[in-house]
Amino acid sequence: MQISSHKSKHTLIVKLEGELDHHTADTVRERLDSILEDPSIKHMVFDLSQLKFMDSSGVGVFIGRYKVVSQRGGTVSVVHVTPQIHKVLEVSGLYRIIKKYSSFEEALAGIGECDE
Amino acid sequence: MRLEFPSKSQNESFARVTVAAFAAQLDPTLEEIADIKTAVSEAVTNAIIHGYENTIGIVTIIAKLYEGKIEIEVIDNGKGIEDIEKARQPLYTSKPELERSGMGFTVMETFMDEVEVISAPGQGTRVKLVKYLKSTGGELRRE
User: Fold this and answer.
1) Chain B contact present for A63, CB below 8 A
2) pLDDT tens per residue across all 143 residues of chain B
3) What CATH number does residue B111 fall under?
4) pTM of the complete model
5) Is position B54 annotated as part of the catalytic site?
6) Complex ipTM
7) Spatial contact of B43 and B108, defined as CB atoms under 8 Å apart
8) Which of A56, A68, B52, B93 has the maximum number of C-beta atoms within 10 A of its C-beta?
9) How far apart are CA B137 and CA B142, in angstroms?
10) Residues of chain B with C-beta less than 8 angstroms from the C-beta of A87
11) Cα–Cα distance, A17 to A50 (Å, whole number)
12) Are strands A51-54 and A11-20 parallel, antiparallel or unpaired?
């Protein structure tokens, strides 16, 4: 599991590469929480284009990080969601708290509107 | 097909990939393969986290192919489930401290056609997953 991230203003863009299951969830959670110690990060955008697999363990990871940024008035979005992961997110009801966009431009525009 | 492995989390990926490779004989669609992988991953994760509570036991998978149908049983000899109905409810988790979503059974039920759970406290758990495949099957279809 590879995690790469960069910050753009108050938004953290995270790319997940590999498979997000119970085995890899702890690593992802720890890495993200240490990055989120930076209090200037408000929003998170996950690039899931290279995430090959995710099950409900990944849903727990998203809910946990949503709790952190929502307390700061921030949002969590996902872009480039594959069909398998879309199905898991949909069944889990996760789209009630996180937003799905088809591109970064749309996601960043969506976040901009939230901040206005 | 029978597969036995220790209840270590690194075997979750091995288990779902192996069952998916076995199911490939039925000529499933990509979506069907992804459904099977996801459901197996949920059942095996449950065996490791809840059945054995992160101690080491043996997880057994028995998979059978029929014409247009796959049956997969995921079996552990762990602590068993006290209230199966409650365990199957969406969002229910016995381990909220682990940041579990409580969606494991819901995912299995959505991605498979039949999910049967046989369990009792101290008796382990057996989860039977059935999926009917839209294609009529590769090898098995031939006379």
Assistant:
1) yes
2) 999 999 999 999 999 999 999 999 999 999 999 999 999 999 999 999 999 998 999 999 999 999 899 999 999 999 999 999 999 998 888 887 778 888 999 999 999 999 999 999 999 999 999 999 987 554 554 43
3) 3.30.565.10
4) 0.92
5) no
6) 0.92
7) yes
8) A56
9) 9
10) 34-35, 38, 110-111
11) 5
12) parallel
Burial of B109 per CB tally in 10 Å (0-12, 13-18, 19+):
middle
Token pair listed for B102? 């409580």
Q: Which of B42, B73, B77, B126 is catalytic?
A: B42
CATH number at residue A43: 3.30.750.24
CA distances from residue A25 to A64, B76, B135 in whole angstroms, order as listed: 11, 22, 34
Tell me whether residue A42 is in a domain.
yes
Number of structural domains (chain A) is 1
Among A59, A56, A64, which residue's Cα sits nearest to residue A31? A64
**What is the domain count for chain B?**
1
What integer pLDDT is reported at residue B143 of this predicted model?
A: 38
**B13·A21 Cβ contact <8 A:** yes
- Quick check: is B65 in a domain? yes
The CA-atom distances, in angstroms, between B8 and each of A2, A48, B2, B19 are 21, 26, 18, 17
Q: d(Cα A10, Cα A42) in Å, to the nearest integer?
A: 5
pLDDT digits (tens, 9 = 90+) for A10-24: 999 999 999 999 999
Angle at the Cα of A109 from the Cα atoms of A106 and A114, rounded to 5 degrees: 125
Q: Is residue A116 part of a domain?
A: no
Q: Please report residues of B whose CB lies closer than 8 A to that of A93.
A: 90
**Token code pair at residue B75:** 């079996």
Cα–Cα distance, B106 to B112 (Å, whole number): 10
